[in-house]
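User: I'm putting together a small comparison set for a docking exercise, and I want a reference complex before I start. The sequence is below, and the ligand is zinc ion. Could you produce the 3D structure with the ligand included, as structure tokens?
Assistant: Of course. I'll restate your input first, then give the structure tokens for the complex.
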Amino acid sequence: MIKKAREAILHCRRLRVLTGAGISAESGVPTFRGANGLWGKYNVMELATPEAFQRNPELVWKFYNWRREVIAKVKPNPAHKALVDLEKIIPDFLLITQNVDGLHQQAGNKNMVELHGNIWWVKCTTCEYLAQDRSIPLPSLPTCPKCSSLLRPNVVWFGEALDPEVLDKAIEAIENTEVLLVIGTSAVVQPAASLIWLAKEKGALIIEINIEKTEASEIADITLLGKAGEVLPQLVK
Ligand code: BV8
Ligand code: ZN
């Protein structure tokens, strides 16, 4: 299977990659639904929502400050690095990530979109202010330097629409690809996961890398069971 996947990837002109929290697991970033659950005592579904922020912005910022602290200490793993190598050899490459940890950019990927935003960016709840801010921790209630309103993390919360331009770019790329490599995602969160079914519908070859079967396994042409940090480098070398 590895050989078949390697051939398909190395001989294709157009390749898209969809990554989820599993690709950062070996860097030490907890996944959302993994055995250790997400972020210890915090329940992401309760906190990563506009309602939670409305109700208790201090608690939501505590959650994000804690995740920023965890993520600041980790670095890209061999799976992230393999995608940088892949980008160098595939003529038409796009990385579509659900992750907000910024590890793909840190590893060196350039041609990519972040469907759910980036934890290192903050935006104003009132004006257009949007900036990268890597200070750790941010004040418990950070305010906008332009209009003094409350700042929020520049991530897409549950119940919020994805940035239409970002989603359109991902859909357009998914609609014309030869191969879609799906790495480390439970394929549960929508509309990101629907990109896998769209690629299948458009005739792409679906290759999945995960430590266990997922919702997408039934439509994957090749499912490679194993850790992304161990499997992915074998596909690229
Ligand atoms: C929206 C940022 C509506 C925040 C995140 C149908 C259509 C549309 C929406 C919905 C729908 N059904 C349900 C919904 C609502 C919801 C949703 O999908 N809920 C799920 C839980 C059912 N969707 C939304 O709310 C979306 N918004 O649709 O709004 C709308 C439309 C128009 C106008 C107004 C409103 C927004 C979704 C975005 C939420 N934000 N992140 C933050 O991070 O703080 S999503 C969050 O989950 C992360 O981004 C994460 O990446 C993502 C997906 O999870 P995974 O990445 O897959 O991670 P998970 O832990 O689940 O799985 C890890 C996998 O890795 C596992 O399979 C594991 O086996 C594997 N693994 C582990 N270790 C390894 C490994 N694999 C390989 N190697 C390893 N070492
Ligand atoms: Zn402002």
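The mean pLDDT is 95. The chain has two domains: 1-28+76-116+162-237, 30-73+118-155.
User: Thanks, that's exactly what I needed.
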